[in-house]
Amino acid sequence: MTKIYEATVTAPVNIAVIKYWGKRDSALILPTNSSLSVTLSQDHLSTRTTIRASPEFSTDRLWLNGIEEDISASKRLVNSITTARKLRAALEKKQRDDGVASEDIVLLSEWSIHVCSENNFPTAAGLASSASGYAALVSALGALFQLPQSTSDLSRVARVGSGSACRSMFGGFVAWRAGESNDGSDSFAVQVADRHHWPDLQALILIVSEKKKTISSTAGMQTTVETSDLFAERVRNVVPKRMAAMEKAIAERDFGTFAEITMRDSNQFHAVCLDTYPPISYMNDVSRSIASIVHAFNTARGRAAAAYTYDAGPNAVIYALKDDMRDLAELVTYCFPRGSTILSEDFYADPFNMFGSADRIGQVPTDPDVAQLATATGQFPAGSVRRIIHTEVGDGPCVLPALQSLLNESGMPKRAKE
Length: 418
Ligand code: DP6
Description:
The chain is α+β, with helices and mostly antiparallel strands. It is built from ten helices and 16 strands.
């Protein structure tokens, strides 16, 4: 039987608390500022990717959620695959130089590959799938090619696919150091703390819209760099201080500081978008109402007990500690009732059993202060928030056993759409 050269991995989604917005080099994807994110659990959000290399494949092919995509049409895909292949070729050269017999060196760098990738969440959920997608691609290439590079080194390869993807190469709390060099050698991700560091930190993702964003992050940040006056102030004076303060807050598990910086940084990112000319607005009325409700919740608690953040779209991610999460989940499910076209288990899965039973979801909150806040706020039209994903901090990419492969014996997707 001929040996199969293949690797299957899963990689997580990350949500930034200090936002990356702006490039100093678009080809290498070098950012104007450092950023910091939380990696979310792969139980709820992850990309699984299988890559096989074979001398029998005539060309590189890729299937995304069952549909074949043209690799050569995406410079970013070509760049990340080519970079990983160069690292493999260097490894093969080293083996030759070290005197390894030529029949023992597998020339994987010269073979074509088949890539099959699937998300465990609907792509249409309006969540960034490029970060988990490129992190899975690069981790699978790293495993297949048995690359000796460190995860930070490999994060530079993920970075050339999509900037935020470099942060999905680690679990827990992750900083992307912007770096200064022109070749990108010092622009990579590092883990600030692992997922066990702050076990009580959880997140609620409120899907406000499942539509694709109107202006892509890539295009939006380019216009911001070119036109916004506020942007330079953010890059020069605001982000460096916030990075230091955020890393300290995480090290000390100081949720109040973590929450305030997270909200302020999201607000400033959206302010900079509005200062872009022509202006960009990613948040909508529902997003803004969610932010107000979080502030009202914090006022009722007398401390910053929850923190919202928004990426390049209207969906909210709210971080809170486990002890506050139940009241928060009761508040948001009361204020944003389930739409009639969504099944209750699809609206809010309740993986941590906060509600006990599905019919408690959307009732008046149990805590009297939260109940008062909920009734004073009132209810938004059903379906304003389409879906809620309750999740927690998670691990970085994981290598799976061969049994979990997405490819069949002939190297074609097991599950393909016509
Ligand atoms: C708002 O990583 O998607 O989510 O590097 O052009 O692929 P490209 O952009 P991308 O931008 C993400 C922007 C953000 C903030 C963040 O994740 O830090």
